[in-house]
Amino acid sequence: DRICVVDKINSTKKFSTYCSVLESKSTTVECVPGYSRMDCFRKMYKGQADFGVFQPEDLLAAASYDSGSVAVINNIRTFPKQLFETELAAVVRKSANITFLNQLRGQKFCHPGYGYNTFEWTPIMTRYFESRVVPQLCESELTLAENRLKASSKYFKMACKAGPWVADADLDIKLKEKYHNLCGLCDDPDTCSTMDKYWDRRGPLFCLTDGVGDIAWSRIDDIDMHFGEPLASPQHCTWLSRPWPAIVARKKHSQTIQKMVMSLNEAQSHTWQWALLHLIESFNQAIVPLDSIMSLEDYLHQAPGFMSANTMSHCEPPRTVRICVKSNAESAKCELMKEVAKALGIEPGLSCTLRSSTEECMKAVRYDSADVVITGPDVENRAHSVFGLEPLVVEYSHKASALYRSAAIVHASSAIKTVQDLQQKKACFTGYDTVGWNTAVNMLKNKDLLTKSCPFYNAVGEFFSEVCVPGVNVSSDFKMSCPDSSGAENSFRGEEGAFKCLVTGMGDVAFIDLDTVKQNTDGNNNETWAVNLRSTDFRSVCAGNNSNSDCYLSWATPGQVLVQSNMSSVRREELYLTFLNLENYFGKQMKQPSMFQMFGKFDDRSDVLFSDASDRLETLASLHREKDVKHNYEKMLASLRPCSASISSVIPLMTILPTFLSLLFAAR
């Protein structure tokens, strides 16, 4: 039997500590590493793993596409006699004389606050009470987040809702100034932060018993602990329950695994049973068998309110963020991201629309069939000049190796030492209007080495003796060094193709990402042309008069979330906050094993939808406020765009029709 254990980015040390014990002992149980808990679910569905431990939100997301092939066999409890992990209730002060829901209007509300990013308080749990008692607004000129805040601000006289209301600090400040009565009950209303006395799970109860508020939204176990005795009400009135974490297994192995798991309680130290027990449960938890093996939905339905809590959309039709995807793998990841976001209550919801290519997705965004498309940096200039798109946010990493670093790569033995030495040499490019192309143009332009201005491709054709530019086959301005550049099957396309162009002698310099050299040398590429290459056989030509192995001419962010440049400010803000929320829950900053990974492998594939190496999302404005943006590609493009805009309407993304361009150049 195979247990799936999260052992990738931001995981605990459980895998290395306990899976090694399983490997060293005589047992049929083995560990299967997962990138996230939802990755473990997918591995079970594919027959690559047999069981694992999951949070109820995982089950909720998985239930949307479950075919009945898995089942819940046990749950894992901190308190064995407590039916549910969390139960939420509203508590009122007796002196407030509140006995009916319609008496809540105009009262003072104590709220647990925001900024948890854990399963103690998901967005659904945080706003459940207000969504049930406060008449919700759906004003088109406000984001969903602000609609909720405005509705509560109008309904309650005052409140303490400490912590970040939205994921952007500047927008958070503006909203707190606008709806300041929602911070009015806080101990420090001007700051209204996670440092406040009334923030945290028990914060609302202190707010209540300090005589500050009239009603508090809290967990029942915290209520019991805070008051130390049962409340005057003879029975707790639970509004919302959250089930315990559960062990889920493939159905055909469920009874065997359940029997094995229940035998672990008597495990001796440092046996395989002891190791498996530690992989399943955390400190002071107990494995509790279910009366019968249950489907995911049946297990979740036991907890009052849990299954329906994430269906509280208050705008009709519901607002959605429409993501355009370019492959089946991207579509699968997007659909899964949609379900996990829904399970946590991230708003607006997501939808995924599949198109055949990046070009078609950019058209879809341009003509409002989609809201966003996530692309690499090579199409950014065309996206702007042809389709009127611009980055909403970009992917970023503090690790230089995660960025696209465009470099002029030559053989280590080459006589080329400076940029000037490139004149009348043969150049290899990944394509036209790509990062490498535009970086080379910018460098040559800044050094006054181009004899002409717009269009720059004329001058580039004169500066180099020959060029290999996949997608272009124009003999009048380019003497092509590689054959049949316009063919879709051309082996010189892309990063690897441009490097191959250099290696095979068709070029003297290749404008490629620095990492392309590493990926195709030192045994990393077993193709005939690359099998014997060493990274030390190549070096970079620097913009200055020095030369070393790893200097670069520009750096670009590995991915951009592109939107219409002319969209309304409200819609832009809504999309922006949605992606920040996705990053908060599914990014790399999560300390505990993640439910889902935005930036990481998906089904063992790299760079699906987002770059694996990215750390976070940033706006270009915030990125450019950082210190080292001297060679930033996105900033560099601004100086080239007046030219590219003048020719963009006749330069397709990857193919330039030779006959059409021959006429264009003949007319020059």
Outline the structure in words:
- The chain has 668 residues and is α/β, with parallel strands linked by helices.
- The chain folds into four domains: 2-82 and 243-301, D-Maltodextrin-Binding Protein, domain 2, CATH 3.40.190; 86-241, 3-Layer(aba) Sandwich (D-Maltodextrin-Binding Protein, domain 2); 320-400 and 557-626, D-Maltodextrin-Binding Protein, domain 2 (3-Layer(aba) Sandwich), CATH 3.40.190; 404-556 and 649-666, D-Maltodextrin-Binding Protein, domain 2.
- Helix content is 32%, strand content 17%.
- The protein contains 22 helices and 23 strands.
- A six-stranded mixed β-sheet has the order 13-12-14-22-15-23, sandwiched between helices.
- Helix 12 (328-344) links the parallel strand 12 (320-325) and strand 13.
- Helix 3 (56-63) packs across helix 12.
- The protein starts with a strand and ends with a helix.
- Residues 647-668 have low confidence and may be disordered.
- Hydrogencarbonate binds at residues 430, 436.
- GO terms for molecular function: metal ion binding.
- Residues 1-313, 321-638 form the Transferrin-like domain.
